[in-house]
Write a structure and sequence with these properties.
The complex is a heterodimer of chains A (314) and B (257). Chain A has ten helices and no strands. Chain A is an all-alpha fold. The longest helix of chain A is centred in the first third of the chain and has 32 residues. Chain A starts with 33 loop residues before the first helix and ends in a 37-residue tail after the last helix.
């Protein structure tokens, strides 16, 4: 061959710097063959199916064993599979495996920078509760509060739940009072027992019943036969939980908070609880701060105790 | 008298000489690739910002994100994932074909890549964006039969191609970028993250398609070949990055449970 010899790793030949005698460089780069590419594609499609399958598996497991997986399980599993896929795409399709290692170093550095970004953000986000408990991240998805382990979250979740259940009980009482044709003690007692059953269904203990009893005392009036009857029923053996009234009430509240009636609500299952328990400030819906009174004006002297005198609109 | 035809009639890719500031074609190729990887790292950081926003708002308001994710159909997302993965494969295959001078196969693979990109955009706009924004479903959309109760008979658009469904549309920003249909006060954050993430990704798909179209045209003109295929390689890198981003976006947006 008449070519001048000894090209170095870049194909640079000191004796022929312009490569005139080279008739074009041979591709010194690796050619990734179709078999490799197809294998990688097959794995990528497999992992895509795996991602979807594990997500649905998580939901299924939570249903079968009636547990709540921690919130980070979903993200961690999905992100690990996505990372594996990303590594395969970068190594084989983008040929990082066959390239100058500097390219790989560059990409690792970029992802490292992203990790630093997310790490410091996470440090801030997840420690907000240490400064001000109310700023703790919101309760986890699922709505029942059963997956919460950290103390500040528990307090917030329980407090919100108690408040909501109080409203539920009072609403049912108000409904019973307003819909019954004759204000018999039996009807009232039954409606209130339903409400108490709801509380029991929610797993609340003895002190919840105490609070419920004191609510009753406030609404009905301590010492009346109705009060005595309900008190006995509430503190004694509870009847079978009756959810229908509570569910109906919940639906009504749910729709009321939406403010659009049923139009904004998709046909799917009702929302999980969590955001219902956090009252929206400034709304005048069922979950506003002002205790909802009986619809037909129960003027028993407790009507306007939340509003200062003379201040009727906010 | 004979004249010598001194014109070099080889195809461009064989005649190609790198500029004088390069020591060799191999050095030019490696440097171009390294420079493009630098650009890709900036793209990763761009989407990293969006992922960070996702991370923050999902941590703060997991309920809103879960509810929002239920408004998306994971099957369209999965189909889009498959489409992009296949297009990545055909892009890499086209590079292989150019490296081995199989130009017609290279063009075929590039066409398939382009069509997959177009399919991705079509699926996104027709089956995901349009129903949410306007309430109009494509008539062949399988999801339409879930909404038979709320179909408004006779209200169609685009010569009967799209059917209106009551109560589904409006999942788009309101006048001041609020989302007035939202039950949850934090839903606007979910929708903003979803639309920003997927729309900026769709923009990158369009840019990638433009690059690939240009490469396709030039392969047809004999511009690229086994010794000169830098542009093909680099467009491939961009397309693979677009695929990579979607690989991360899909589970984060569609598979929240």
């Amino acid at each position: 061959m008449a070519h001048t010899p000894a090209a170095d790793s870049h194909g640079f030949n000191e004796l022929d710097p312009h490569g005139f005698e080279g008739h074009g460089q041979h591709a010194s780069h690796v050619i990734v063959g179709p078999f490799t590419l197809r294998t990688v594609l097959a794995f990528l499609l497999l992992f895509t199916a795996l991602t979807v399958a594990t997500a649905q598996l998580e939901t299924a497991i939570m249903g079968w064993f009636d547990i709540t997986l921690p919130w980070w399980v979903n993200v961690a599993v999905a992100m690990s599979i996505a990372t594996v896929k990303a590594i395969m795409v970068m190594a084989y399709f983008m040929q990082l495996k066959y390239d100058n290692p500097i390219n790989t170093v560059l990409m690792l550095f970029t992802f490292g920078a992203l990790a630093i970004f997310l790490f410091f953000t996470g440090l801030d986000l997840f420690s907000r509760g240490a400064v001000d408990p109310i700023k703790q991240n919101q309760v986890v998805a699922g709505g029942t509060g059963s997956g919460i382990t950290s103390k500040p979250n528990q307090a917030v979740a329980l407090g919100a739940k108690e408040r909501f259940l109080d409203y539920l009980a009072v609403l049912q009482y108000a409904k019973a009072k307003s819909t019954e044709l004759t204000a018999t003690d039996a009807n009232t007692a039954r409606a209130l027992t339903d409400a108490a059953a709801t509380l029991q269904r929610q797993g609340r203990g003895g002190d919840a019943r105490q609070r419920f009893v004191s609510l009753l005392a406030e609404r009905i009036g301590e010492g009346t036969p109705a009060f005595e009857q309900v008190k006995q029923q509430v503190t004694g053996t509870m009847p079978e939980p009756i959810l229908a009234a509570a569910q109906a009430e919940f639906e009504r509240i749910h729709l009321d908070v939406a403010g659009h009636g049923a139009t904004a609500h998709h046909e799917e299952a009702p929302l999980p609880g969590p955001n219902r328990t956090m009252p929206r400030t400034g709304t005048t819906g069922a979950l506003s701060e002002a205790a909802p009174h009986a619809p037909h004006g129960d003027h028993n002297g407790h009507d306007h105790d939340t509003h200062p005198a003379g201040d009727h609109s906010h | 008298m004979t004249t010598l035809d001194t014109r070099d009639s080889r195809p461009y890719w064989q005649r190609y000489m790198p500029g004088h500031h390069w020591r060799s074609a191999a050095e030019e190729f490696d440097s171009c690739k390294f420079g493009f990887w630098l650009f890709l790292s900036t793209e990763v950081l761009l989407f990293g910002g969006i992922f960070c926003a996702y991370f923050i708002f999902r941590s703060l308001y997991p309920g809103a994100f879960m509810e929002g994710s239920h408004a998306l159909d994971w099957r369209w997302g999965a189909l889009n994932t498959v489409v992009l993965l296949v297009s990545s494969y055909t892009m890499a295959a086209s590079i292989y074909c150019v490296q081995t001078a199989q130009f017609s196969r290279a063009k075929l693979n590039l066409w398939i890549t382009l069509i997959c990109g177009l399919l991705f955009l079509l699926i996104k706009f027709t089956f995901e964006y349009t129903p949410k924004w306007s309430g109009y479903f494509f008539v062949l959309d399988p999801a339409l039969h879930h909404h038979t109760a709320t179909i408004v008979e006779g209200k169609t658009a685009l010569a009967g191609l799209f059917q209106y469904v009551e109560g589904y549309g409006g999942k788009r920003p309101g006048m001041l970028f609020d989302y007035p249909f939202a039950n949850d006060p934090n839903m606007p954050l979910w929708w903003s993250v979803y639309y920003c993430g997927t729309a900026i990704h769709a923009l990158h798909v369009i840019i990638g398609m433009v690059l690939i179209a240009r490469v396709l045209k030039r392969v047809g003109q004999g511009y690229y070949g086994p010794t000169h295929y830098t542009m093909v390689e680099v467009s491939g890198l961009y397309w693979h990055l677009v695929d990579l981003i979607w690989i991360f976006l899909f589970p984060l947006l569609y598979l929240i449970h």
